Amino acid sequence: xxxxxxxxxxxxxxxxxxxxxxxxxxxxxxxxxxxxxxxxxxxxxxxxxxxxxxxxxxxxxxxxxxxxxxxxxxxxxxxxxxxxxxxxxxxxxxxxxxxxxxxxxxxxxxxxxxxxxxxxxxxxxxxxxxxxxxxxxxxxxxxxxxxxxxxxxxxxxxxxxxxxxxxxxxxxxxxxxxxxxxxxxxxxxxxxxxxxxxxxxxxxxxxxxxxxxxxxxxxxxxxxxxxxxxxxxxxxxxxxxxxxxxxxxxxxxxxxxxxxxxxxxxxxxxxxxxxxxxxxxxxxxxxxxxxxxxxxxxxxxxxxxxxxxxxxxxxxxxxxxxxxxxxxxxxxxxxxxxx
Length: 339
Fold this sequence. Notes:
A hairpin with a 4-residue loop joins strand 9 (about 240-245) and strand 10 (about 250-255). The chain folds into three domains: about 10-105 and about 150-185, Rossmann fold (3-Layer(aba) Sandwich), CATH 3.40.50.620; about 200-255, SH3 type barrels (Roll), CATH 2.30.30.280; about 260-335, Elongation Factor Tu (Ef-tu), domain 3 (Beta Barrel), CATH 2.40.30.10. The longest helix has 20 residues, at about 80-100. The protein is an alpha+beta fold. The strands form five sheets. It has a six-stranded antiparallel barrel with strand order 11-14-13-12-15-16. It contains eight helices and 16 strands. The chain has helices spanning about 20-25, 35-45, 55-70, 80-100, 140-145, 155-165, 170, 185-195; strands at about 10-15, 50-55, 105, 110-115, 120-125, 145, 205-210, 215, 240-245, 250-255, 260-270, 280-285, 295-300, 305-315, 320-325, 330-335.
């Protein structure tokens, strides 16, 4: 950005209190004290004004609350997408405006396009690092104030640039893979420590897809759709979590084929590339970050979006994000309903 002539101001926010358990021990995390100071030192070396921002309360009352609530309802959330909308853009754009900045630049591997009076995301050039999936919740105002400096680069190129500027430690830093606020990626322990009502959820029943009792489990929140390992029950064949009934504390187990579905419904959707359309639109949909895009037919039913997949799709998970693409561009996305 400096080479391109921009006047740059840096900002790093603190999101979570569990520094000793989460960030200090999570060498791959981006919220550690060490990482925050690295950002400050980088800014100092480049002569960039830098600010630390404390968003712990907001993060707890929005991102964490959503994360816990979704699991309590037997759903599997995607907190990164929520954080992007509420904090990384919602709050940070306000900070940028207070600092008289015209644009917000982030390190996401994605690109921004503008066509027919609409801004929309497209995939980053480094497909292996592409983060467009997590950005579907951003509205037109947020996108209009955004630039993605890394979008045209591969991660290896960015590491080489860091080396050239003398930031050798940053150039060799591991990628962040896990949730920044969940120690060791153990969400079950996190829920127990941060939601008192979890203690009142006792043992529940495992049942088969035809409703037969199979055994007991330690509580529905221990499980996610498609889970095979750590079920705590042996059935003589590979068993998978097919359905979670949070209200009755019942977890349905089945075989892998029982997880195949041909459709899903989305709520809380957001559109980027187009405004609402009337007919079915043929697109490609991703139902999780690392899944392959699947040809699908997307249309509106009342206030929700219906997706019909061209082929049976494995482990469509309530609470997860379904993001639909047209080629390399994000058309929109939504949250998968319980159906």
